[in-house]
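Forwarding the complex inputs:
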Amino acid sequence: MEHPENDDQYAGLVVNAGVAQPPSVNPYFRPKKRAPRLAPEAYIEGILNGDITILSQAVTLVESNLPADQAIAQKVIEACLPYSGNAIRVGITGVPGAGKSTFIEALGTELCKAAQKLAVLAIDPSSERSKGSILGDKTRMQELSTQDNAFIRPSPSAGSLGGVARKTRETIVLCEAAGFDTIIVETVGVGQSETAAHSMVDFFLLLQVTGTGDELQGIKRGIMEMADGIAINKCDGSNVDKARVAKTQFKNALALFPTPESGWHPYAVTCSAVEHTGVQDVWKMVEDYMTFTKRNGYFKRNRTQQAKYWMYETINQHLLDSFYHNPEIEAALEDTEAAVLRNEISSFVAAHNLLNQYNNQQ
Amino acid sequence: MEHPENDDQYAGLVVNAGVAQPPSVNPYFRPKKRAPRLAPEAYIEGILNGDITILSQAVTLVESNLPADQAIAQKVIEACLPYSGNAIRVGITGVPGAGKSTFIEALGTELCKAAQKLAVLAIDPSSERSKGSILGDKTRMQELSTQDNAFIRPSPSAGSLGGVARKTRETIVLCEAAGFDTIIVETVGVGQSETAAHSMVDFFLLLQVTGTGDELQGIKRGIMEMADGIAINKCDGSNVDKARVAKTQFKNALALFPTPESGWHPYAVTCSAVEHTGVQDVWKMVEDYMTFTKRNGYFKRNRTQQAKYWMYETINQHLLDSFYHNPEIEAALEDTEAAVLRNEISSFVAAHNLLNQYNNQQ
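Prediction (whole assembly, two chains):
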């Protein structure tokens, strides 16, 4: 994407971001390593009993691109649906270096101590290209991953952001049916994955690191507008003053935006994940938001809108994937695009040529 | 769309905004009123000769949803393409009441006096629902519409924003081939149409009206980030002081955003379309931007990116339209969506059911 402010223009195009890579299963769960496939009923029973091993195996099916796996996965999701929806869903984003892992570890550990069951999921479309997403590295959250009440899952790998996001959205259903009270969806904070995460969570937290001078420059356009709250991390040591300044900067910046439809006024707090200070304040903000939006009806309204959104998004992704992953189209696309970039052929004629080629196969 | 900050999430969904309405031709150019269809060569020759009547008839074909019309339209566009690209393309948006029509009339009249050929196009997806877009009302621009050098065209009507935008984008090619130096693309300033306009213009102007108290509250999220410049209109009479205050507010707000990839720093100017003051300053801003971006190479790079974007956008729109305008799908969609909203069926199973129904027809 050449210009950040154009990200949203390209939303209809996300599938294309993955065209270059063939679909593949999550590198952390290669088929050969996998447990044998069970009957749908076995997964459903295991999940409803809160069996983490079974849950993990079911998520692997959700993430798989094999039709046989998908067939079972859809049955399991459908059966789990009536038992889902009871968790608090929190999206957490922040630029690399903001300390997301450390923050989630600190927050998660406290939640688990409070007997909360926490699932940490991730959306990182780059995981495919980079083979082994940074969000896939469990060793980042060593303390948390030892907790019985924590379920940490790396980002699914897929041919497109749409695919990655859909799988994460489906995994939420399974985790909630397995009795998790809190779902954290982590994103890398570098683009469209935020939009996808925002469309599946109740509260969207922007984790910001201070000490970079102008704190606002690092933020991807549009992300601050999505945030229901901002946590300024690394408010420790020589950073404390800078963090307080940043807090004021964000306060002023947030005041410029219209009140979101939730009626909630986003605000910024400081914390130090390393020193475990202020993390409680962040969580209190989340809980206050839940109380506030459940009272004014936005919470339910937003979830309904999200369900509708995901139906259309799934349809659209499937239609586009079928086209862009079609072998003939994949073969022709590069040359056609090049001709358009050389202005030898109009965008529209190029599009129609490819569509005719596609439809003649059907 | 329930929440403004979610607009970009729905970019993949714009086609659905039109599902409820059957495709129809532009209400201003009903077939029965229409001139007889000519051979492609006749349209091409007329357009290249700058014949406004022929241009207007060709645009009608571009806007038509009849396959026979589209076949001719695509031939004409393709032939005009080598002669297009020489105009300055300016997008103008602003909330209703900002005085867009008066401003465009004032600016356009001056441009025409300077012997510039000006085409005013519009993108207003609501034109379909409201039957007769506000942007279609030529009487708004009485002075300008009497100018020989002005070509004013209402928003095309179509089944979706994507369709409306594509037709406007194609019309730009024809207008440029007909020798227009300046293309203004007007949008209603209430949502996604801005993104569409932004993706087809060189300079994007936000027209803002003052006197509303907090000038920033009225702005749709994301639109200010798109603006290459802001014109604060109605800087006249008792409004002058307020306008100057607003100018400062915008200056401060704009300073919070990262420098766009163009390298150009957007700024705000005041003007009064009614008193014809400051309109020259706005145009000087546009001309300075053109000089600046042509020098640093962004101008060309941006147009190339836009051409690529429109190829993919056209493909995606076509794939989605084929699905959502399929009679069986149109019949099933409402009930399925209702079931999802009642949480009786998962978003994903609902999507797969509809997709299976669609694919079994192919």
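The CA atoms of residues 94 and 347 of chain B lie 36 Å apart.
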